Amino acid sequence: METKKRPAIKRIKYYFLYLLVKTILLMAYYSPRKLVLYFCGFLGGVSYYLVGDARNKTLRHLTMVYGHEKSNAEIQTMAKQVFHMIGKNAGDVMRSVYMKELDCFKKVVNISGEEHLLQALAAKQGIIVLTAHVGAFDLVGTYLAMMDYRPQIIGTRLKDERLNQLITKNRSRRGAEAIERGKDTLKVVRNLKSGGVVAMLIDQDTKVKSVFVDFMGMPASTPVGAALFAIRTGAKVIPMAIYLDQNNRQQLKIFPEVHITITGNEADDLFNNTLALSKATEMLINQDPTQWVWMHERWKTQPQIAS
């Protein structure tokens, strides 16, 4: 069957986006980190004004969540910071492509709460690292790989194949394995049952099996994969995320295990545990809301109301 060609304007858009990413990669390799963060933060700030669709979605979603407690001016300031921080964090992700040693990683990243991960590893039941699209989130996978945990990193396939290959190649370095969301389920189960580590994100509305649970005060279609893997394998769930602080240090925070409830009623268990994991994800975002991807249509899918 012939694949439908993407409209010319989108092909041009993704082609230039790919060239921009490659250019920033080269710049990140040859430039001091301070300059990279400044330049990428500047690009992020400019994007707020140039990319109207993303700006409007960000403002709308921030208003949905914070409109009752923040003024329009405060929300606009917050939205500008979101774009600025996405740019700066992207700079660190770009630089991490060339990191080969844990010592180099730790020059940029402070790690706290590592005892929670070590305690879960000692149980030898497998670990689901629950993270979110917060900050330089790819560095969570980099950390797990550099610690030689050989993680499987589950993510959504990008629309542009060149960008997708670029991201997949980076995530698959240092012993990690990139797995497309919804694929290779049996491989993930085997890995967890053998005591392995899997990194997952459930903070986006995607076309996978999902349930509606509360997320920031509103129902959100939330993937059940993490809860299902935890229920069926007995794996521990450890929340983990990374944030850029005011001193341009990345702070990787590891939080206590999320308790998984198993009653034998799979439908109830899926709902209740997905809700618990959604609340854990919310907690990760609330550590610094300006570093989450508010332009994503998190609440796009809504429950159907019976007529």
Walk me through what this model shows.
There is one protein chain. By secondary structure, this protein is of the alpha/beta class. The chain has one domain. Helix content is 51%, strand content 16%. The protein contains eleven helices and nine strands. A seven-stranded mixed beta sheet has the order 1-9-8-2-5-3-4, with helices on both faces. It has a two-stranded antiparallel ribbon with strand order 6-7. Helix 2 (33-50) packs across helix 4 (72-96) and helix 3 crosses helix 4 (72-96).
Keywords for this structure?
alpha/beta, 7-stranded mixed β-sheet, single chain, 9 strands, two-stranded antiparallel ribbon, 307 residues
N-C termini distance = 40 Å
Strand content: 15-25%
Strand order of the largest sheet: 1-9-8-2-5-3-4
The whole-angstrom Rg is 19 Å
Count of domain modules: 1
Q: What does the main sheet amount to?
A: 7 strands, mixed
Uncertain spans: none
Please tally the helical runs, counting DSSP H or I stretches of 4 or more residues: 11
Shape designation: globular
How many strand units? 9
Average predicted local confidence, pLDDT: 89
Structural class: alpha/beta
Order of helices and strands: HHHHHEHEHEHEHEEEHEEH
Summarize the amount of helix as a percent range: 40-55%
